[in-house]
Structures are given as C-alpha cells and as structure tokens.
Amino acid sequence: MSDARGGRRRRAAARAYRVRPIGFVRSPFKNPEDFPPPAFAPPRFLDRVKGEVVVFDDFTPGLESLDGFSHLIIIFAFHRSSGFKLRTVPPGQSRPRGIFATRSPHRPNPLGLSVVRLIAREGPVLKVSGLDMIDGTPVLDIKPYTRRDRKSRSTSGWQAKRARPAR
Ligand SMILES: C[S@@+](CC[C@H](N)C(=O)[O-])C[C@H]1O[C@@H](n2cnc3c(N)ncnc32)[C@H](O)[C@@H]1O
Q1: Does the CB atom of residue 24 touch ligand 1 within 6 A?
Q2: Most buried of 57, 59, 86, 108 (most Cβ within 10 A)?
Q3: 103 lines ligand 1 (CB under 6 A)
Q4: What is the tens place of the pLDDT at every residue in 59-76?
Q5: Which candidate, 93, 113, 94, places its Cα nearest to that of 103?
Q6: Burial degree of 50 (CB within 10 A; 0-12, 13-18, 19+)
Q7: Assessment of whether the complete model's pTM goes beyond 0.85
C-alpha cells in the first residue's frame, strides 16, 4: 500500500497524536453564525475583536517569557463544528474549493489556527485582539508569532481574485 493510502504509517500516526485543551477562549461571540461573513465584514473587523485566552492552571508555567511577543498563534478546536466535505463552497462564493484550500471550520480534523495580537498578560489570562473564535472554544496550543512566520512573497491563490458580492 502506498504511503498516501495509509497502512502502517497511518496507524502509527493515529496512535501518536492525542491532544488535550490547555485552556479556552473568552469571546464576545457566542455562536459561529454571530460572525459576519468575511465578504460583508467592515475592513479589519476581526482585528478589533477583543477577548481572552484563559490558560488552565497546570499549564500556566508554560506562559513564562511570552511577554514581548506582539502576536501569538492560537491553535484551537472548532468544537461547535460537525462533519465536513472535502470540497466546499466558501461563504459568498459560487465555486467549490478543496477543503484544504479554505479556512472552513468544517474539516476532517476540526482544528483552527488564528494569529492574534497580545495586548497584555495577567497571570493565566492573555488579553488579545483579532479573535475569530467563539466563546468557550478549546485552545490546544499557543506559539509565539515570529519573524520566521512572515512571508513577504506569499500569494493567495483563488482568494486573490475572489469576486466581492455587490453591497
Ligand atoms: C473561517 S474560520 C477561520 C478560523 C481560523 N482563523 C482558521 O483559519 O483556522 C472562522 C469562523 O469559524 C467559526 N467558529 C469560530 N469558533 C468556532 C468553534 N469553536 N466551533 C465552530 N465554529 C467556530 C465562526 O463562524 C468564525 O467566523
């Protein structure tokens, strides 16, 4: 069986990856549908959404030395998402795209990744802006956003030429 079809490597990977929440999100948005569709949101809407990432006590020593990083990468579970399609029509679009070419919350592994701005840290609580997660979202990991994450020559595939609906 080829590597891509699975077999031994797939079984080994399935055993290796177990995740548990290290905290949760406090967000002004209570439900996934409370966010405006991207095409209708005012410019930089999400940048202004403030909230908190609350880290459980047993993981707070891991927050040491985060101060001084302007942005954080938050990896989280889309805990209110169920099911997925490998091809999906993104909001405001008419053409289906492969799920891995989208940021849809309906994915084979419902994992999300957001870059947020770190405003302040108060013990186990990270005050942040730029949230696109709902209240209670389980946080699986936090990483500092570093110079190496900036890609000056990135391109945006189908998103670069996506049609904006008439306002
Ligand atoms: C398009 S996704 C992008 C999330 C992240 N930036 C990413 O790229 O993985 C953001 C949308 O997911 C939905 N959402 C946010 N938190 C969720 C959760 N915990 N469970 C299910 N859906 C959620 C909201 O509708 C939000 O507008």
Answers
A1: no
A2: 59
A3: yes
A4: 999 999 999 999 999 999
A5: 113
A6: middle
A7: yes
